[in-house]
């Protein structure tokens, strides 16, 4: 095992970690706002990937051009899901909420299979493709683009929730629903906005992943599982820590994958267990 | 409904269930009933820990798989009777549950739930890569003469029905006993407010470990039954996270922290998935799963406390005693 191979794995892990972080950021945002874990998050990602694929297959749009479309589309999906389902169960017990989003995930996944069959699909010859060599390491162009764009999107999201007035209203709602309402913040709209933004994160991530990843109805499952672990690792309620969580998981996954590819997720879960046994609230969690 | 009425209802239900295989003699309804019994049993096991004690676990499959594999491996290697294997599986599941619970009960709410998912994934991956116990290929149980000792019934499949019913009755009986005992009150106290319970002298970790031990033992029981019923097990069928989630769903659908919730949930969810599968499955279009998912969303939106609450509401008469409100798990309790 040479240093070069390890460096290669670290680089791949880092790049993938940023994408994991963006997927998890949406989950973390929604959780921080209303303490609901969205079990349909992976299916949101799947929808974004399919949207990107169909934009390419039907309209000839490259994933780069489809990215804003997928982001906007998923924002709408998140908003509608909030209005249609979640707003009705805000006061329901945690398990009923999990149950509702789980039902939604089954519905969306089988709906995708119904409409588009379980076939694996791939965008052929996207604009961003191939790989190049950097300091003796291979870098996949789509992976690098995905990582940079994910980082940029993450930064935008963070800027939005910490620097804009609407973002601050969002945070106020997350901290104390009633106090925020008394200050004249429309909390209903903030919740819907949170779901829209959370889904928009996976909208962007899905369009980026569609450049180099197969698109099929079950694609969201593994990303969603990793996203839950990412959020918990960083700590529930801390969106910034999700970035660290995503990068750590990408690194662990790729390093363990070097020695024992079959056990790469075992490595990720063991890492999670070690971290939370040491710090039961994740690395930087509020809850 | 008075105590007497309740007893009569229970006796009536028991009589119907005992008579069922003689009225519906076809294999299919019997198979559906057996699966309802199995899921009711697993959901009740989940309920003991997740419902009464408030520790939401998504790792039932770990104990289910341990039960299935222990009895199967013992039977395959040394010809041990599955009944003894069942006890061994339960014992092993209890040991593993303590090893999981002791460190993990420090975690609260979602951190605990995700930890149990992680442990489930780890155990499944280990089972897939462990060649001595069949690895990813799984285990075909050798066919033996059909006797009760061998726990195999080939021509008289109704025997499986009664074994499942008996196991289910035992698990429900024990849970009913726990529910009324001091233990049950301690469990609920821990669920409602762990800090208050602790300040009143309830040792949290000890009672959570008791709850997970009972839950693990019951789940392993179900695992052995499954292995003997299907006679083939592999990591995909007995260790998947989807099984853990389904078990939790059955309990949540029925009513968390209620004695009859898991039975009601299993009866509704399994019949629902069977019905949609028969009418709409087989097209490869997954319409059945779409309807199934859609109905799950509807139930949780309109009946978030579980179906037990609905039955209570329908059964309530003006002027009669109020129905018991379904007990719900508050958000983020530890």
Rg of Cα set of chain A = 19 Å
Helix vs. strand class of chain B: mainly alpha
Which range best describes the helical content of chain A: under 10%, 10-25%, 25-40%, 40-55%, 55-70% or over 70%?
Answer: over 70%
- Give the overall silhouette of chain A: globular
The fraction of residues assigned to DSSP E strands of chain A is under 5%
User: What Rg of chain B do the Cα atoms give?
Assistant: 20 Å
Task: Enumerate how many helices of chain B there are, as a single number.
Answer: 14
Structural features, described:
By secondary structure, chain A is mainly α. Chain A has 11 helices and 2 strands; from the N terminus they run ααααββααααααα. Chain A has one domain (3-115, 139-278): Orthogonal Bundle (ABC transporter involved in vitamin B12 uptake, BtuC), CATH 1.10.3470. Helices cover 73% and strands 3% of the residues of chain A. In chain A, strands 1-2 form a two-stranded antiparallel sheet. In chain A, α1 runs antiparallel to α10, α6 crosses α8 and α9 (220-234) packs across α10. Chain B has helices at residues 3-23, 27-52, 60-78, 82-104, 109-128, 158-180, 182-192, 194-199, 204-230, 235-238, 241-254, 261-280, 287-302, 307-315; strands at residues 139-140, 232-233. The chains are: A mainly alpha (287), B mainly alpha (334).
């Amino acid at each position: 095992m040479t240093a070069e191979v390890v460096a290669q794995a670290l680089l791949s892990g880092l790049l993938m970690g940023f994408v994991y972080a963006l997927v998890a950021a949406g989950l973390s945002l929604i959780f921080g706002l209303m303490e609901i874990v969205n079990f349909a998050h992976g299916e949101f990602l799947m929808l974004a990937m399919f949207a990107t694929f169909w934009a390419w297959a039907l309209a000839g749009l490259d994933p780069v051009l489809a990215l804003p479309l997928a982001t906007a589309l998923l924002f709408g999906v998140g908003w509608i899901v909030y209005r249609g389902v979640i707003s009705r169960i805000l006061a329901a017990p945690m398990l009923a909420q999990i149950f509702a989003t789980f039902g939604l995930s089954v519905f969306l996944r089988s709906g995708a299979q119904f409409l588009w069959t379980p076939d694996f699909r791939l965008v052929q010859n996207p604009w961003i493709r191939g790989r190049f060599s950097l300091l003796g390491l291979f870098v996949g162009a789509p992976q690098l683009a995905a990582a940079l764009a994910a980082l940029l999107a993450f930064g935008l999201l963070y800027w939005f929730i910490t620097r804009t007035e609407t973002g601050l209203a969002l945070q106020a709602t997350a901290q104390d629903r009633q106090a925020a309402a008394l200050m004249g913040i429309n909390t209903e709209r903030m919740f819907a906005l949170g779901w829209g933004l959370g889904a928009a994160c996976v909208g962007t991530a899905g369009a980026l992943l569609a450049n180099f990843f197969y698109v099929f109805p079950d694609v969201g499952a593994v990303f969603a599982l990793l996203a839950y672990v990412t959020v918990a690792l960083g700590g529930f309620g801390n969106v910034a820590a999700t970035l660290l969580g995503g990068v750590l998981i990408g690194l662990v996954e790729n390093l363990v994958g070097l020695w024992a590819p079959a056990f790469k997720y075992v490595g990720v879960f063991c890492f999670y267990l070690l971290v939370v046994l040491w710090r039961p609230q994740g690395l930087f969690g509020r809850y | 409904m008075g105590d007497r009425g309740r007893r009569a209802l229970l006796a009536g239900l028991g009589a119907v269930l005992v008579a069922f295989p003689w009225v519906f003699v076809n294999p299919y309804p019997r198979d559906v009933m057996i699966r309802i019994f199995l899921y009711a049993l697993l959901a009740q096991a989940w309920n003991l820990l997740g419902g009464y004690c408030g520790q939401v676990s998504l790792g039932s499959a770990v104990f289910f798989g341990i039960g299935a594999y222990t009895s199967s491996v013992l039977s395959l290697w040394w010809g041990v009777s599955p009944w003894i294997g069942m006890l061994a599986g339960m014992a092993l599941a209890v040991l593993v549950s303590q090893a999981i619970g002791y460190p993990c009960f420090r975690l609260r709410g979602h951190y605990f739930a995700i930890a149990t998912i992680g442990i489930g994934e780890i155990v499944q991956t280990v089972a897939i890569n462990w060649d001595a116990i069949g690895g990813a290929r799984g285990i075909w149980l050798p066919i033996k003469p059909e006797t009760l000792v061998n726990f195999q019934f080939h021509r008289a499949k109704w025997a499986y029905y009664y074994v499942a019913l008996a196991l289910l009755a035992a698990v429900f009986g024990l849970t009913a006993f726990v529910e009324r005992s001091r233990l049950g009150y301690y469990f609920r106290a821990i669920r409602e407010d762990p800090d208050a319970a602790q300040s009143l002298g309830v040792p949290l970790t000890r009672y959570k470990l008791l709850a997970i031990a009972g839950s693990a033992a019951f789940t392993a029981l179900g695992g052995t039954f499954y292995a003997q019923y299907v006679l083939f097990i592999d990591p995909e069928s007995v260790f998947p996270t989807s099984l853990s989630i389904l078990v939790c769903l059955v309990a949540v659908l029925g009513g968390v922290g209620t004695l009859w919730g898991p039975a009601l949930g299993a009866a509704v969810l399994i019949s629902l998935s069977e019905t949609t599968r028969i009418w709409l499955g087989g097209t490869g279009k997954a319409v059945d799963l779409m309807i199934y998912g859609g109905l799950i969303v509807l139930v949780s939106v309109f009946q978030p406390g579980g179906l037990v609450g609905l039955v209570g509401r329908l059964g309530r008469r003006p002027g009669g005693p109020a129905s018991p409100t379904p007990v719900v798990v508050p958000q983020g309790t530890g």
